[in-house]
Amino acid sequence: MTHSSLQKLPPIDSLLAGLMAHKTGSFSAAALELGVTHAAISRRVDVLENWAGQKIFQRQARGVLVNEVGQRILARIEHALAQLDSLAGSAERQTSVPEVRISVTPSFARYWLIPRLVHIEDTPARLRMQVQTDWRHADLVNGETDLVVRYGLGNWGIGVEQKMFNETLCPVVSARLLTSGIAGNAQAVAKLPLLHVADSAGWRAWAKRYVPRWRQKEADRSFSDYGQCLEAAQHGLGVALWNRAMHGPQSLGEGLVVLEGFDVPNPLAHYLIRRHAPLDAPPNVAAQRLLALCAEGA
Question: SUPFAM superfamilies in the record, alphabetically (predicted)?
Fold first, then answer.
């Protein structure tokens, strides 16, 4: 980074004002949190938006909302500040335990990675895994993270890419939506509101096998994240597709029932991606432990 580019960066107080306004939902609340005036927050956000070259906040009578572009910008700012903070912390710790950053979606962290962290970190030699959760794709090439778990068709063309496991999807529904006519009846399942994740690839694969003439309904819903789908199903909003490989022996959670006999192979998969590096480099050691757990079905 050149001296001229450093001069173009916004002041740190503008970054903090933007993040606090996003967190609290209003300039007034952000001002209280940061101990400044409403006008100061407004000026600092203006500086931030001028630097970004576009509006980040939508001003409303009772607060502010962050637009889609603003969410991406603020997520990167928050990540950058966290990286600066971790630099100070790592200098203080002076620990000999190697740290490996892994970028995953919130759902993958919740259902698969975090329950297995102790096995990845402690055996046989110690590692410290820094879990970065975000819906966007972290930049592996430019060093934003050490490992990435991506969900899709694969062949992204970045680093060494390995499929983690074969995945099977099956419908799950809340106990209060379960009726006698739904068990063993794919047509009855398809008539309920279906809860989709992103591009609906899972439900399209399911319908191709069980309800060939199925079409998406107005009552169906779409969510950006797998975990949101399961929570929506748990609250009786419709039928979600449960990914067995993501949960292993864990239970679904209170109130959800698996509709057995309607499994379908997942057309998408989770892939572990890493940079080319020596086999004994900490990211590669962590990657091998992750893949070993996948192979064991742990």
Answer: Periplasmic binding protein-like II (SSF53850), Winged helix' DNA-binding domain (SSF46785)
